[in-house]
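Researcher: I'm preparing a figure for a lab meeting and need a structural model of a single chain. I don't have an experimental structure, so a prediction will have to do for now. The sequence is pasted below. Please return the structure as C-alpha cells so I can convert it later.
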Amino acid sequence: MGDSATPLGVLRRSALALALALLLAALTPTTSVAQDCYTSSIASPTPFMGNNGEIFRLLDGSLWEVKYEYEYLYEYYPDVVICPSRGRMVVAGRSLNVQLLSASRAPPAPARRPATPTSDVIESRIDGDFEGWDGDTIFKLANGQIWQQVSYAYAYSYRYSPKVIIFRTSAGYEMTVEGVSGRIRVQRLR
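Model: Understood. Here is the structure written out cell by cell.
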C-alpha cells in the first residue's frame, strides 16, 4: 500500500495543500491573506525543530516562538511562509502555531556599552564555559552583563561560549541558550 493511502500520507497531503494555499494567498494581492503573510527563511537555530517553546529568528531579524507544536523537523535554514496576524507559519509542508516576540533586531550595540535591563531582547554569548543550569546558576555574558537563574530547572550541556537570547515576558526575563532545549527565567544582577 502506498504512502498516500495511510493516515500519515493523508496528513502530509493536507499539510502540503495548506502550505500551497498560504503561499498562493501570499502571492495574490487581491486577498486579505496576502497582506498578512510573507516569505522568509529561518536564520537560527540550526537545525530548526518546530517544537513548543523553541525560539527562532527569521532573516528579517524578527524573533518568534513556536507554540503548542511538537514536529521534530530537523530543518536547516528552511524557507517559510509566515502569517503574523494569524499566528501561523508554514515550514517543510507543516503549519505551526507561532508568536511574535520581537519585530526586528535592534542595531548591534558598541562592544563596551551593555544593553539596558529595559531592552526587550538581549543577544550575547556566555563568557567562556557553559555547563547548563541547576536552579540558581549565575551567567556572565560577553557583553559584561551578569544574570542569575530564578526558576528551578536542571539541564547539563557543555558548550564553549554559546549564543544566548534573553527576552522580556509578562513574568520577567527568560533566557535560551544555543544548543540547549528549554528556557529559564532569569534576573539581571549587573
